[in-house]
Amino acid sequence: MLSRPKPGESEVDLLHFQSQFLAAGAAPAVQLVKKGNRGGGDANSDRPPLQDHRDVVMLDNLPDLPPALVPSPPKRARPSPGHCLPEDEDPEERLRRHDQHITAVLTKIIERDTSSVAVNLPVPSGVAFPAVFLRSRDTQGKSATSGKRSIFAQEIAARRIAEAKGPSVGEVVPNVGPPEGAVTCETPTPRNQGCQLPGSSHSFQGPNLVTGKGLRDQEAEQEAQTIHEENIARLQAMAPEEILQEQQRLLAQLDPSLVAFLRSHSHTQEQTGETASEEQRPGGPSANVTKEEPLMSAFASEPRKRDKLEPEAPALALPVTPQKEWLHMDTVELEKLHWTQDLPPVRRQQTQERMQARFSLQGELLAPDVDLPTHLGLHHHGEEAERAGYSLQELFHLTRSQVSQQRALALHVLAQVISRAQAGEFGDRLAGSVLSLLLDAGFLFLLRFSLDDRVDGVIATAIRALRALLVAPGDEELLDSTFSWYHGALTFPLMPSQEDKEDEDEDEECPAGKAKRKSPEEESRPPPDLARHDVIKGLLATSLLPRLRYVLEVTYPGPAVVLDILAVLIRLARHSLESATRVLECPRLIETIVREFLPTSWSPVGAGPTPSLYKVPCATAMKLLRVLASAGRNIAARLLSSFDLRSRLCRIIAEAPQELALPPEEAEMLSTEALRLWAVAASYGQGGYLYRELYPVLMRALQVVPRELSTHPPQPLSMQRIASLLTLLTQLTLAAGSTPAETISDSAEASLSATPSLVTWTQVSGLQPLVEPCLRQTLKLLSRPEMWRAVGPVPVACLLFLGAYYQAWSQQPSSCPEDWLQDMQRLSEELLLPLLSQPTLGSLWDSLRHCSLLCNPLSCVPALEAPPSLVSLGCSGGCPRLSLAGSASPFPFLTALLSLLNTLAQIHKGLCGQLAAILAAPGLQNYFLQCVAPGAAPHLTPFSAWALRHEYHLQYLALALAQKAAALQPLPATHAALYHGMALALLSRLLPGSEYLTHELLLSCVFRLEFLPERTSGGPEAADFSDQLSLGSSRVPRCGQGTLLAQACQDLPSIRNCYLTHCSPARASLLASQALHRGELQRVPTLLLPMPTEPLLPTDWPFLPLIRLYHRASDTPSGLSPTDTMGTAMRVLQWVLVLESWRPQALWAVPPAARLARLMCVFLVDSELFRESPVQHLVAALLAQLCQPQVLPNLNLDCRLPGLTSFPDLYANFLDHFEAVSFGDHLFGALVLLPLQRRFSVTLRLALFGEHVGALRALSLPLTQLPVSLECYTVPPEDNLALLQLYFRTLVTGALRPRWCPVLYAVAVAHVNSFIFSQDPQSSDEVKAARRSMLQKTWLLADEGLRQHLLHYKLPNSTLPEGFELYSQLPPLRQHYLQRLTSTVLQNGVSET
User: Which portions of the chain have biased composition (kind: Acidic residues)?
Assistant: First the structure.
């Protein structure tokens, strides 16, 4: 084997090694392969590869001398395959012609003649080294118009000027000047002076560009002058137009940079000449240099004009005077130095004119007249320079700066502005919403672009601003503090409601079908369009999640940035199930968070700032997993199975918070979030295997609770951890008590059922003795408000645990009923009954009204900083103490107490009466009275929906307890009526997610005879007596209203079945809600409630079966079954009559006009339904209720009615149906006549007299049965000319006769009589002509009876057969007016109209 060369071996040794290698014939270790060109094409691709050619070094052929140090020829690009060389061209000739090597250039060099060039010797000086050049030295001798020339160029120009001046005094110049007769390029000869083109202003006194420099002295002047004369002769032979044309052609051919250089060169020479001539005028030797004007005088004159406009001294009062010798200050631009002046005084605002908002660097809103010092850095802006602070437009402009620090500063200020705006600091000082303004300006995508920045500081500030925008302060604190409330883990999604509401048929479509149908449309929409309606969806469409994962996984940011990212992810997960799924499925995002921020082992972390959160457990990361798990049972199962959360939960829960080697607060929050995550998983029946492993830990934690409760003062974080522990035990107890789900036919419902829980009853049966002492200890603090508020969540969680414990105990088939009944009796006697008798509990009931949202609807006004595209709870400023979520709120404790009492009363019937005594509390009675009273309903906002849901829980549990008590013993009449009114009000207010409560109210309280005490206290008899005493009894017989009410009470079960059929929620929603409220954990699909866009039932729900019946009849041309139609209509009318008579407050939210429209639907459903005697009696009774004197003034048909697009359209349809099928039915006719009153729209009367004249013959309702007074139709007089003409036409043609339609006949006669005898001087000519013509025709009528009625009408009187009184003789004024008109008619004839 050949050895490698070693250091020290000579070239002879290397050649010897080479000969040995060649003689051996071994294969080389490296093979040279010629690569193709970079264009991808290989010109020599057909050649075979070189196999045997090797590079051999031969020292014999090397030259003796080293090569010349000349630059090698530049690399030449190989011709591309698409460019073919000409075949007839010699390659050598082509290379020779394009050869640019130094050897080819040297052969073409012509030596420059320097014999005529003056040589100046250096100036002798007395120092050893030349003087050092300083930039600040005086350069007044330089040209003032040097522009942007370098210092070297300025020095050269100054030297040329000095040379042009000649030697100064005392300067030694050797006699080596040019020979006599030599001229320079600036000195014109006499023969070329005064050369000027004819017709041109340009004179040529000598050559300018061609100087002859470099030629021999004899030939220089001659050649330059010859070229100049040839140019002059050529220019003189051309016309001015040809010169300009040739000039434009040359300019187009030349390089623009070259043209600019020539022009600047000419202008520089001109300025140099001027300066030199001016400086040499006083005396001394000078060269006779004449100024030349260049050809393009317009370009050269511009600098001179600008120089003339510039003053010698600054006109502005600047702090310092700029010197031209300063760097880059040779040309002073005064307009750019305004910023150096002193600021003008702050303008005081004298009017209410709006001014631009300006903010400090901390995001504070500055007053318009505030005067702050300039060293604060708040005056670096152009507009309104005297005002401190920066506007939003200026901050937006700064975010696009090229300096990263400026971008970070702008984002930081904007984040501070958003935080302060959401905190409500600006109040009403700003016109409009800051968040809406920023979102409309594109701030969202500005943040998204900033996240892609390369500077870590900008990324961190952008993430901080994104958190300030998305995460409203206070929202997470509110949801965390209420996690242990009654169903506190359930939340509404924080997403905007859909603007376009679907039809009822589309609402009944399954949610999966809707999502599939809408997803392609949403995917095709661009992110800005999505963000306009939903900020979160717009952000997710911009690949935000992968970017946040990259920041966490690659850049390793600081703790603040990590917490901001986790907070943003929590807000995204709370948006909807879809957003939570996208967060879970983002590649490596959850893996990174679990790996880096939820490790199973970590180094101890002390108190104080943490340098890094990586490899340290983070409570916020645990909370993110908990929020994700709350979105659905499938997400929870994936989290538990795919990310090894079992070991992490065991690691954190197994140790007490003080033993976790973390800061105390962080350890408490981490332990609390771990318990909550486990509780959420247990809400789906998952995570039961952890209970067996951590059973000793949980028992030890429960045993320590009494000691922690005795701490003074109690620590809030510890109380939250204890409440979370009790909530976890509550869910585990429910899981142990739940039985395996039965077989379900529906596959969708079967998917909700899981395997039986791994927790058994024997494993949780020992928890109650440990929890009950904790409850007893906390109840002792009830009389101490401060301590009670501190331990607030603990007694709530204890009560909820006891309720779940007894519920699960009673469901165990192996347990003895006597055991749990005796234990309930013991708990009631020892704990609950003494609690109910405490005065402090009464104070909690009294504070319900002060903390209620229903009793204080103005307390939930939507916040100003609440853009519809970005939903938040709006708890930035914290909840007031006397509010539902405040520290003094009695709702969580009383709701948990009522839940426990309901559980005990349902299991132990003997305790029901004793426990129901709590309902007699005066505070609860007053609270119910105020909730039932009519008033403005709270505006439905995200916070009001959250708060009202908890308030409705308390109301429902109180009503459920009252229903259980009423089933055993009669309730007091006043209490029963109050509870029934409360149930009716609650039924129309329940929000989505409470479908089970709606169903239970329909089953129990609403249609129970126990809550209608009027049926046994003389209610029907009182109704009959009221009919007899009613002033309107002479008009509409009420058909025995008392009898109808008594019959309705007997038919109450049928009425309940009817409403259960038509008002029950969808089956899937009902089952999901039922599983949540019953504790059937295996069927719970999600802890995320449906969107609270509106209540489950409309305000007019008593008419809902009738409305659906009307829609079914409209969609079914063949008609509906008479049996179903008759039964549904009767039950609805009976129930509405009960409400109108005994619970009128339940229908106060339904306007009388809407009730009238619903009654019309009875006649529109079928052509025979209204003929049935029961329906006739019920409709007549309800019509009489609408026509009562206290209700009739509120009947307004001109306003917009709920559920109705247009009442005139409904009335036109009603007239069509009346004309077709009524056959003169009096009740039908009464409903037709009711909207024709004078105070209603004239459109309704025009519809009858203009389009349905044939219906007049069927309106045979007698005057005595008219439901309202006749004066409602005749007063005030009609002023619509078209309707008056229709009245007169129907009277004259006989279409309207007193025996066919007595009511409208009297109405038409009254209005026509009032019109023809009206003498209003302000009437138009058209009205006067119509009045005169109508009176003339009336006087000439052949029908004497009609003529007598129209002329002698006096007053309406429904007791007379005609319906009005007549004058026996016309009044004198009318008689005189009629005689004057008739005399004119006899003379001129009757005018035609």
Answer: 500-510
